[in-house]
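Problem: given the chain below (502 residues), write out its structure.
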Amino acid sequence: MRVIDDVADFVIVGTGAGGATAARVLAGAGHDVLMVEEGPLLRTAERPGEVLDAMAMAFRDFATATTRGAYPLPLLQGRCVGGATAINSGIIWRLPEDVRAEWIARHGLAHLVERRALDDAFENIERELEVAETSSKLFGGNAERMAEACRALGLPGQPMTRNAARCQGTARCLQGCPGEARQSMDVSYVPRAQRDGARLLTLARIDRVLMEWGRAVGVQGVLVDPVTRRPVAQLRVMAREAVIVSASAVQTPVILRRSGLRGMVGERFQAHPGCAVVGRFDEAVTMSRGATQGYEVPLRDKRLKLETLSLPPELLAPRLPGAGAMWQRRLTEMDHYAQWSFICRMEAHGRVRPALFGGGSGAAVHYTPTARDMDRVREGLAILCRMMFAAGAREVFPGIAGLPAVFKSAAEVETIERATLRPHQLNMVASHLFGTACAGRDSSTSVVDENLAVHGVHGLHVMDASVFPTNLGVNPQHSIMALAWVAAERLANRSRSRAVAA
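Solution.
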């Protein structure tokens, strides 16, 4: 294969929330930046409206990657320019204050999460990415019914805040916002960095960081065919200033371990697995109208966050109970279903290693929820079912193997509350992943320091959710962006100071 060589001041691996934000800051400061992305650049106008075709283009391994072990859990990751921001609903949450306090007290990260710097970053991002509360006009039937349930049960429901102030309520976040109202990284910070001089290399899989005498000097990998994913050229990019790895909490530790780093690399993998419940209503709900996710119920004391999640028919259909004529009858009522989900701030820790063979993503993720995690999952399912009935559902489909497939009254929810649930009984999915290159002051218990620089390696930084020492209990993309903004700004200032001194 031919060999392609390049060089830049800063080489950034990954264009998701962390990598794209770092590129926006560093390119904006006048540095020569090269963004390297494993997936393709998907033009909005070219993305298919059919969700399965869209998933094949934008999701890693067509959303088939799972954890290893007795209870495999699906792992949802984006693999395209913009990463997960290009396939999510744009939900925005600032770093919760209790999490910030824990990071300071237990992990010595006062400098990283210094209030003024972090708040400035949040405000800049919110202004540039058009962050706004979802209007009730965009709720659609799905969110309207969750809001009704909250009023009936006295729950602290609220409209979601999203980076989509111009949302038209087409419920097509998974396929790519047709009007580019959602300010995902592929339509915001990546093109902004390019306008400031940054370059973008797509379909480039980075395998390792190149090291010389304790310093990161570049990256090595391959260019891949867009269809077969087979290598077509070798790639080597040298970094004058630093390498920034922003490849996700799964791929980042794989790259670091293949580069020879050990210690805590790949340890402390954490997630927000979640489940969903479907309800059937007499009147039409029409999940195809409104924001894909527009309403939420944060229950931090229970380590849960309930959310609306509208699905297109091809993803909703497998969630409906029954077979044969019964299932076909349910398909004719497609407009009458609502779906609500929750994410659970689980306490379980796992690990990530490079896959020895197979696995598609090149990573082996080991993770098993604890008994207490499953107790919280059980509570979340019960709350969602009760909320469905409070909003007027005629039937609720809890989706739990071994329990009734259909509940017809709120009294039947006690079946869940009395049960001991196991992961294999549920359709749990993990979409928020954290912790495999933890930040901390102590190098024996962390991978990066308060500036997100790898302990003991000059010129190597990590800027994605893998640096989070804990999970959050809320959607992480805003916190990823803010931490990357702060770290990249400090990195740009140090680089400028060195240049002036020279």
